[in-house]
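Is this the right way to post structure tokens for a design question? Let me know if I should format differently. Anyway, here goes:
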């Protein structure tokens, strides 16, 4: 092999912390195995179905579409309008009514999934604020630090939860905000924190947003699970808190989870500028960045979302479907807490204070290996469990297994 070969100086890269475990799960030949690792919604049967509203939208799109032409660099205007309304809907307002600041100060870019939106946000920080660092509260979605580092930016990890991973540690979070320099960026999860399930209250969001604005830090709000916490509008309390400060914000949102469009790769970056001109200027740089990354986004997922949200009947149907997913997740949480107590694993009632699909059970690597080897139960590091991977029959089995590795 020549000294100049790409492979000359390398060993294998590590497997992805989440996709790697899902691969191990797939390779497991045992018939009764439990995938509580993947970050996807599953129904009681362990299936991730196509939502009926999505099927209906797809059949309408198939019969009406006439071309596969490129879209603009910023994506499909119909999707962008729909995604903007979903994000910035006023509390108690009708569909189509958005926060007035959002109509003036927001530019939208259609991205391949939430990952594309986070990647674009990070790329904008590197282009527009050279030398800035990006702060991430650990633990976080492991891809955050990977994305920051692949953009050649320094990721500054900081504490933000209590040692037992059960609740917010506000003083650690405010210390990090005080330590960041003006112009640095900080990533927050808009709702349903992955992996901890710990979300600030609306009042805490207001305090966080005010501190961030005061310190001149650029918030990147990663909003991958809108609707999985308390409701589509309730979950956007974080976003409204930042919008109200007048500071610039980058909001990465995903249609992967709430529309179950995982493999269609659809999401958006909302660029909130100090004013309309600032947003337009930032968006012009975003389009430059997009042109060098994916050029323009895939169309199908965005067409599904805009078809659903643009039709009052389909939209109501979809809101019901999101509500049903949310209710199932909340039900699984409550049933798991009860089953863990019955199995003698201890008091896990703190899980009831968390939101979305995930929480940490606080298990060690050894305990996780035992769960996998002895019980064919797959969780992510620190015992991140996906509540949507549970079912009425699985819950007592999982609870007993957790009790046995904790004993
Ligand atoms: C916190 C967080 N951000 C972003 C994403 C990206 O989602 P997408 O599949 O839309 O790229 C995920 C997906 O797991 C996530 O958990």
């Amino acid at each position: 092999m020549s000294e100049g070969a790409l492979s000359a100086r390398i060993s294998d890269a590590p497997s992805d912390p989440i996709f790697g475990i899902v691969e191990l799960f797939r390779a497991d030949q045992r018939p009764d195995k439990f995938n509580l690792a993947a970050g996807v919604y599953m129904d009681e049967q362990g299936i991730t179905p196509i939502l009926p509203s999505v099927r209906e939208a797809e059949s309408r799109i198939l019969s009406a579409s006439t071309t596969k032409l490129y879209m603009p660099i910023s994506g499909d205007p119909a999707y962008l309008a729909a995604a903007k309304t979903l994000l910035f809907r006023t509390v108690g307002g009708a569909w189509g009514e958005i926060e007035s600041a959002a109509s003036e100060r927001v530019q939208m870019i259609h991205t391949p999934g939430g990952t594309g939106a986070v990647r674009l946000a990070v790329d904008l920080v590197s282009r527009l604020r050279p030398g800035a660092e990006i702060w991430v509260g650990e633990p976080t979605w492991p891809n955050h630090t990977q994305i920051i580092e692949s953009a050649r930016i320094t990721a500054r990890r900081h504490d933000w939860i209590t040692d037992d991973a059960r609740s917010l540690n506000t003083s650690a979070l405010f210390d990090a905000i005080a330590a960041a320099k003006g112009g640095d960026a900080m990533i927050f999860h808009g709702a349903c924190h992955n992996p901890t399930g710990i979300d600030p209250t609306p009042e805490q969001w207001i305090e966080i947003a005010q501190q961030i604005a005061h310190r001149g830090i650029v918030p990147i709000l990663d909003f991958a699970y809108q609707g999985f916490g308390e409701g589509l509008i309730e979950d956007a309390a974080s976003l409204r808190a930042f919008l109200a400060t007048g500071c610039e914000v980058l909001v990465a949102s995903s249609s992967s989870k709430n529309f179950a469009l995982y493999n269609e790769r659809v999401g958006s970056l909302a660029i909130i500028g100090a004013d309309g001109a600032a947003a337009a200027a930032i968006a012009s740089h975003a389009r430059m960045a997009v042109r060098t990354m994916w050029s323009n986004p895939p169309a199908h997922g965005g067409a599904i979302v805009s078809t659903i949200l643009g039709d009052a009947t389909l939209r109501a149907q979809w809101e019901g479907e999101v509500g049903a997913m949310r209710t199932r997740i909340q039900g699984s949480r409550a049933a798991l807490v009860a089953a863990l107590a019955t199995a003698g694993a201890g008091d896990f009632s703190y899980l009831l204070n968390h939101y979305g699909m995930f929480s940490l059970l606080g298990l060690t690597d050894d305990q996780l290996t035992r769960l996998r080897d002895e019980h064919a139960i797959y969780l992510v590091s620190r015992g991140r469990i996906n509540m949507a991977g549970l079912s009425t029959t699985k819950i007592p089995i999982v609870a007993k297994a957790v009790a046995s590795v904790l004993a």
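Format looks fine. Someone answered above. Worth noting: DSSP finds 14 helices and eleven strands in the chain. The CA atoms of residues 5 and 11 lie 13 Å apart.
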